[in-house]
Write a structure and sequence with these properties.
The protein is mainly β. It has strands at 9-15, 20-25, 31-36, 40-45, 51-55, 61-66, 72-77, 81-86, 98-101, 107-112, 118-123, 127-132, 138-143, 149-154, 160-165, 169-174, 180-185, 190-193, 198-201, 205-208, 214-225, 230-239, 245-249, 258-264, 270-276, 279-285, 294-298, 302-307, 313-318, 322-327. A four-stranded antiparallel β-sheet has the order 1-30-29-28, with no helix packed on it. The two termini are 15 Å apart. The model has no long low-confidence stretch (mean pLDDT 96).
Amino acid sequence: MKADPSQAHVARELEHDAPLIVCRFDPAGQALYAGAENNTVARWDLASGTKTVFAGHEGWVFGLAFSPDGSTLISSGSDDHLLWWRTDPDQKDAAPLRRVRAHEGWIRAVAVSPDGLHVASAGNDRMVRLWSLEDGSPVRELAGHERDVYSLTFHPSGRWLLSGDLLGRVLLWNMETGAQETGFDAGLLHTFEQGQGVDYGGVRSLGFSADATELACAGLHNAPNPLGAINEPLALRFSWETRELRRKHVSDGGVKGVAWRAQYHPDGFLIGCSGGSGGGFLIFWNGEQDGPFHQMSLPNTARELDLHPGGLLLAVAHYDRRARLVRLAAKEG
């Protein structure tokens, strides 16, 4: 069945005990994992609905990433630590396998290399670090960001790691040498408000198209009152080959919020998840226009999304302690 965003609807709700921050399907698409404000990771088996709680962090959980085979989950939090978890659905003890004190301050992003050898982490200490997935030992430190780092992703080839920061800089790191190469200018996602004296915005997510010819960066713009949460979602679509900006994707109707994540669907369209003072929205863009070809209002403030490997289901993490599964097709029955 082909995905049809115009038919998108909430098909299911999964409840937790605290507001959710981040969500990811496991690589096989059998379970949904979500990080929460009560320092836990929740896992729901999609077939049975059974929930398992992973407790081990001492702060909010901001990042989730899987090994390519799905057997290991890495989580990052506001407690300076990365935690390794076993994902065996039959396990009775959901205790962490390993704890690594990886940064000073919040670890906002974590990613696993396509070859399954390395874990990348980054956060408020402005450092990007590489670790061995196998044993958690340090591999390399990458210095170059001048402000907090919010997002990480590996190029699908595994040859590069990308990191995005508060100022809208996307740095590109050669995985073989650790050298910094020509990155991307996503400065449209950064605001400095003179009156309030604050930097605001930043590259909140990074994602590649299925053919790796485009890079999407998500965040916000039009922020005349950052401390009052007056801003609008924005996603930038870049050419990987030329580093040139192709599209500045905006919302319909002046939605007030942040594009916390933008993710490409295998069919080529881009999906944005916006949450903020204007509520929650899913926004769908193609490469032909800046505005959306479809926009869906959600029941509560959205904080992140993830696309199921099958391409017909989205998961959205919400502030109201629920993860909502959105089906990109007509209602069944």
